[in-house]
Amino acid sequence: MPTYHYVLASQSFLLEEEPIEEVIRERTRNYQEREKEIDFWVVKQPAFLEAPEMNATKNQCPQPAVAIISTDRQFITWLKLRLEHVIVGKFQAPSETIPEPLASLASV
């Protein structure tokens, strides 16, 4: 079962106040140049927040929420340092309470 790492913030903060589009575009370009498969996704209202074990995290984040999810822990750590006002964490999926995050992605 893969481990997914994430940064989580309110939609207004992550998509309007921060220049995250530029960061994602640059990261995508970098991956393409290195012929590396994309391992991150921007997700509005991520389904993992509905799992009972994520209640505390969900309650900490203003809604509607947006997450950047990745299998690359270092990328998420870098985002946390760059963005500062985000929640970070990880989860494993699929599990009994958390579906596979890529199966029903509603990406931005």
Automatic annotation (TrEMBL):
Any one Pfam family match given in the protein's UniProt record, by short name: Ycf54
Domain of life where this protein originates: Bacteria
InterPro entries named in the record: Ycf54, Ycf54-like_sf
PANTHER family, alphabetized: PTHR35319, YCF54 (PTHR35319:SF2)
Family to which the UniProt record says this protein belongs: Belongs to the ycf54 family.
Name listed for the protein in its UniProt record: DUF2488 family protein
